[in-house]
Fold this sequence. Notes:
- The protein contains 4 helices and 11 strands.
- By secondary structure, it is α+β, with helices and mostly antiparallel strands.
- The strands form 3 sheets. The protein has a 5-stranded mixed sheet, with no helix packed on it. Strands 1-2-3 form a 3-stranded antiparallel sheet, with no helix packed on it.
- The radius of gyration is 67 Å and the shape is flat.
- The chain crosses the membrane at residues 227-256.
Amino acid sequence: xxxxxxxxxxxxxxxxxxxxxxxxxxxxxxxxxxxxxxxxxxxxxxxxxxxxxxxxxxxxxxxxxxxxxxxxxxxxxxxxxxxxxxxxxxxxxxxxxxxxxxxxxxxxxxxxxxxxxxxxxxxxxxxxxxxxxxxxxxxxxxxxxxxxxxxxxxxxxxxxxxxxxxxxxxxxxxxxxxxxxxxxxxxxxxxxxxxxxxxxxxxxxxxxxxxxxxxxxxxxxxxxxxxxxxxxxxxxxxxxxxxxxxxxxxxxxxxxxxxxxxxxxxxxxxxxxxxxxxxxxxxxxxxxxxxxxxxxxxxxxxxxxxxxxxxxxxx
Length: 315
């Protein structure tokens, strides 16, 4: 072999070695990148998923916001409806009639206008027991009596049935079908009954007694006597109460009352003593003798006798 031929294969070997090394480095680099790719891809995938979720959440927020906007309108409308349809509590007033038919007030205790606690909504019909017992005539005299059935306005919505009651017998139905019945007094007392019917149903019944004229006179005189007796008794009671109060006042203020009466008794005694002294003086004056009048001549003579004689005249 020639030396040139031996050097050529050596250079070729070196070249091949370098190529192998380069290929090994490239393969190792590709293996490293291949080993690092799964984590990177996973991170990338997670980032992509988070971005997708963010976009989805944004879309969901937008959808929910739009849904809220869409539902806000109906809720406001429903609030208005609820405000208009507030649950209203109602209570009923007392019926004007204890029996038969009457009226009562329907009172609203919640939802009144103007913030009031209670307000009257309407007035409606109410009913009580049918039997109203014995009633009083609306007017009466010594000859006639006017009776009235239980009724409310309008009167023409009811039917009225008058009956003449008889003991141990069936009542007699009268021809009068109005709410007022005028009856003349008879020699015997009579009893009448009126049934008020609404749709052929008895809603009220009342009875009346019509007395005779003599019984009416006796009742009127008895009522006058009762009035006088009540007046006398009332006056006597008030007088007794007044006396009791005076006695209580005297007992409470006994010292002052005693002093007042003592002063009054002393003043009366003084006045009585003065009057008795005046009476005695007047009596003594009346009993004293009167002086007898004497003539003027005797008086002058006595004066001359008693008068002294002057000295010049003695000679």
